Amino acid sequence: MELVHGGDWMGYREQFGRDALDFSANVSPLGLPKGVADAITAALPQADRYPDPLCRTLRAALSEAEGLPADQILCGNGAADLIFRLALAVKPRRALVTAPTFAEYATALETVGCTVERFTLNEANDFAVTEEFLDAIVPGVEIVFLCQPNNPTGQLASPALVRRAAARCAACGAVLAVDECFLDFLPDGDRWTAKPLLHEDQNLIIFKAFTKLYGMAGVRLGYCLSADAALLEKMRNAGQPWAVSSLAQAAGVAALKETAYVARVRALIAAQKPKLTAGLRALGLRVIEGRANYLLLQGPESLGEALRQKGVVLRGCANYPGLDASWYRTAVRTGPENERLLKTLQEVLG
Predict the structure, then answer these.
(1) pTM for this one?
(2) Distance from first CA to last CA of the chain, Å, rounded?
(3) Residue among 188, 179, 246, 242 at smallest CA distance from 211
(4) Strand pairing of 327-331 and 294-298?
(5) What per-residue string of b and e applies to 23-59 under the rule 16 or more CB within 10 Å gives b?
(6) Residue numbers in the chain where pLDDT is lower than 70
């Protein structure tokens, strides 16, 4: 069975009988915060009860953290769950996504029979989202997905461009779905968020997740923000009633208190990303200048398998529309791990 995403540690273990140094998943390199682990442990005695289907305590904590009313927040079993719920709630007939971008947008849309149009980003422009993207938002398009920063390119559209995209969507009667799951890795993320538009745009929905920044991929917890109460209610009814376990809800409340942890993650990425970029380029690899906690790079098509044999895993990007087998995505991890990646690459590339 061929999987779409990175992070398939079990597949590697089954093949090689050991674990790899995994750069294919873009999660915090510092692991699960201790406060989150403690909160999960403390919640275990109540695991015999059904979880709160409305996530009231978690939404109250998110309301304070995000500066938005709790009724503008919907929690789910990771951001992917909410992306599918959005597709099921809206049931669009025609949608627009960029290429390359996160695969689950198209997968969710195609599940409801939607025709997905792809706006191919220009490689010569380092896959930046530019004004030309706005021209593709035309009457008949019912939903537009924009990833901020984009996965796997790391590129960010300017707040002004996102504002114009929201205006175009409103004029066309389309929903603008902005995925900000990686935005909180940026110290200046508040400058880039589309949240200010929520006060003036009913057609906007923003996806966020605990998965990446807090190293909680296995916990499965995400949420979305929207001023459209009717849309959020449709999304809530579009899936199972107990989407977020009681353990995940407790973990989310605890994660929001981990401000020192977040500062450490951001500092680590800020320090290590330029070093990793320089090291990759010194090996003759093309690296895209992105803003996320990962890097898109180009090298020999044999590179991924050669590294895999040596115990290091990158995210091969051949299954991203708009990219081919020469493109890879690597997470930015700790200094020693990044050094091991560079050393192994040097061995493979000769």
Answers:
(1) 0.96
(2) 32
(3) 179
(4) antiparallel
(5) bbbbbbbeebbebbeebbeebeeeeeeebeeebeebb
(6) 1-4
Which residues touch 57 (CB under 8 Å, ≥6 apart)? 249, 253
Q: What pLDDT is recorded for position 1?
A: 61
> What pLDDT shows up at residue 265?
98
CA torsion sign for 45, 51, 57, 60 is: positive
Alpha carbon separation from 70 to 36, 57, 60, 62, 294 (Å, rounded): 22, 10, 6, 7, 31
Adjacent-strand bridge partners of 331: 294
Q: What angle do CA 226, 331, 96 make, to 5 degrees?
A: 40
The three-class DSSP label of residue 226 is: strand
Joined tokens for residue 292: 């996320």
222-260: burial string, b at 16+ Cβ within 10 Å, e else: bbbbbbbeebbebbbebbeeebbbbbbbbbbbbbbebee
Task: Give residue 8's pLDDT.
Answer: 86
Euclidean distance between CA atoms 182 and 279, whole angstroms? 23
Q: With contact defined as beta carbons under 8 Å apart, do 261 and 94 qualify?
A: no
List phi, psi (to 5°) of 333.
-120, -160
Query: In the prediction, which pLDDT does 296 show?
Result: 98
Q: What is the CA radius of gyration of the chain?
A: 20
Closest CA to 82 of 60, 61, 102, 57: 102
> What is the rounded CA–CA span in Å between residue 53 and residue 244?
7
Sign of the Cα pseudo-torsion (193, 219, 62, 54, in order): positive
Per-residue pLDDT, 200: 78
pLDDT of residue 38: 98
Identify the DSSP state of 121. Answer: P
Q: What is the pLDDT of residue 218?
A: 95
- 275 by Cβ neighbours in 10 Å (0-12 / 13-18 / 19+) ranks as middle
Six-digit token pair at 89? 């709630």
What is the per-residue pLDDT for 2?
62
